[in-house]
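TetR/AcrR family transcriptional regulator: structure tokens wanted.
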Amino acid sequence: MSKPDTSIDPRILQSAKNEFLSCGYEKASTNVICKNAGVTSGALYKRYSGKDELFCALVSPVADQFKELLKGVNDDFHNLPDNEKNNAAFAPKSQTNDFVNFIDFVYRNFDVFKLLIESSRGSSYENYLHELVDILVASTMRFIKETNREAIILGKKVTPEIIHILITAHLNGLFEPVIHNMSREDARIYTEQLQYFFNAGWADILH
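Answer:
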């Protein structure tokens, strides 16, 4: 009795990753994936129902873990006593550590985030960044409420829509190093500078 070929799954996934990175999800071809993996279409569809399941297999472990980590960081923040919460919100040292950890996580899983940011349109993960934004918006609104603050820009109370836009801009900015293939060290410096910019802005508008 012959042993099953355990190399098929890794070959399919590697080929799928290369195809998604090269063409994006929508234009990726399962025929090309099979050809480059050296397998038949039957072998692929025996293991995966199609492109979406392949894409999910590549990104979901890391993407889902990152989302849970983000939720956990925000939950830990909101569990702080009020006096510590106010200090932690804009504390440069603690936030530097957070964003060093952020960069380390992203760069340990660079190809996955490349797929999520640049290649996910049309897949089950095409709204992934929006889902991260929603977590951060909810946390920010909760912080404003818990600390009895108001967000004021140019004398006008900031709407939830503006807060959503600001956080979207911030999060998209944090992933720019992935888009531009920055080195880890350059990404760390860039992230610290970006965080300083947004911290100054939030400190100015939150009263």
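The mean pLDDT is 91. The longest helix spans residues 51-78.

Cheers.
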